Amino acid sequence: MLAESDRAVVLGWDGVLVCRGGEGVRPVAGVTEALRGARRAGIPVIVLTELPVGEVAAEARRLDIVDGLAVVIADAVDQTAELRRLAREYPRLARVGGTEEEIRCARCAGVLAFGFSGAGGSGPRLRAAGAEAVFSRMDRALALRVTASRLFATS
């Protein structure tokens, strides 16, 4: 992967981009706008998931969100190692996770972590796991907010 930008946002698949339920798999409300906003801002969206690549690819095509994804890292057993690798390429890397484990992995990798509770995750638990902030909805400015320069400035 060649970085054209110094920033990127890493999103989880289940619980951040998509929800699973009685109606099958569906995109989380606001995902299309969030992906469009990231694309307009030139911020790559990277999916990091333990799911098999074929499953994620098929679901992304069916949900018509594949064009908003720059990279899919599937079958990711060691998410901390993947995040460390990505952080070397993108100094302003932010992780938006829907589970406590996703937040902990980001923190262990030294990556700025944000929680997403809009698909059923527990905001207080995501904060307790180390999330800088917890968002309850997706919108077109999400990628800009989590990769803002001020968040990465050292004092």
Total count of strands: 8
The helix count comes to 7
> N-to-C SSE series?
EEEHEHEHEHEHEHH
User: What CATH architecture do you see?
Assistant: 3-Layer(aba) Sandwich
Strand content: 15-25%
| Fourth-tier CATH superfamily name | HAD superfamily/HAD-like
Helical percentage: 25-40%
Model description:
- 36% of the residues lie in helices and 21% in strands.
- The chain has a single domain, classed as HAD superfamily/HAD-like (Rossmann fold).
- The protein has helices spanning 31-41, 53-62, 79-89, 100-108, 123-128, 142-146, 149-152; strands at residues 7-11, 18-21, 24-27, 45-48, 71-73, 92-97, 112-116, 134-135.
- The protein has 155 residues and is α/β, with parallel strands linked by helices.
- Helix 3 (79-89) crosses helix 4 (100-108).
- It is built from 7 helices and 8 strands.
- Strands 5-4-1-6-7-8 form a 6-stranded parallel sheet, with helices on both faces. It has a two-stranded antiparallel ribbon with strand order 2-3.
- 40% of the residues are buried.
- The mean pLDDT is 90.
- Strand 4, helix 2 and strand 5 form a beta-alpha-beta unit.
Short description:
This is HAD family hydrolase. This protein has 155 residues and is an alpha/beta fold.
Identify the notable features of this structure and list them briefly.
single chain, 155 residues, alpha/beta, Rossmann fold, six-stranded parallel sheet, two-stranded antiparallel ribbon, 7 helices, 21% strand, HAD_sf, HAD family hydrolase
How is the topology of this model organized?
Blueprint (H helix, E strand, L loop, with lengths): L6 E5 L6 E4 L2 E4 L3 H11 L3 E4 L4 H10 L8 E3 L5 H11 L2 E6 L2 H9 L3 E5 L6 H6 L5 E2 L6 H5 L2 H4 L3
Parallel strand pairs: 1-4, 1-6, 4-5, 6-7, 7-8
Antiparallel strand pairs: 2-3
Helix pairs in contact: 3-4
Protein name: HAD family hydrolase
InterPro entries: HAD-like_sf, HAD_sf
